[in-house]
Amino acid sequence: MGGIDKVFAPLGGKPALARVLHAFDSCNSVNQIVAVVNEKSLERCRQLIAKEGLSKPIEVCAGGKRRQDSVAAGLSRLEGCHWVVIHDGARPLVTKDLIERGLEAAQETGAAVAAVPVTDTIKVAGDDRIVRETPVRQNLWAVQTPQVFRFDIIAEAYKQAKGEVTDDASLVEQSGYRVKLYMGAYDNIKITTPDDLLIAEAWQQKHGK
User: Fold this and answer.
1) How many separate domains does the chain show?
2) N or C: which end of the chain has fewer CB atoms below 10 A?
3) Is 98 left (phi over 0), alpha (psi -120 to 50) or beta?
């Protein structure tokens, strides 16, 4: 991102993180919010929250070196929660509906993850870039956030965590729990590059999110 903290990147006149916080603030099912940011951004995040005039209690805490370290830091700040919704601050087009449907889907197994069917053909290759396998596309899903878990399940998964993972559902799977996929949204993109920000801006203007 050329040195820009992507969660504070402007999108339709608002920082990306502000859009995420507003989506969660609008959910009746959400009682408390923890924003996990890097240590240098703590005060900036607190100022953003104060400016946005959000109604729910929001705590700000510093994350860690890895994604799972940051999530663990956020989990440690929650009190009396039965369910936890984990979301990337860099996915600014999340909606109240997407959050609520995740909570509904998680009732079945205690764990549910937003995902969309893969539209491209995927190849599995070795280090030599020689194709080893072409998985059946109809069975492939691109995982997003929100990821929703019963608190005891995600807490246990983090206690048993081994190695580094790229999403929280992987830790839950390693602990032996079943994870339900529910339909996400193709516009629920993650901002990783400046081009992603342009795409998110186009989606935001199209749908007025």
Assistant:
1) 1
2) N
3) alpha
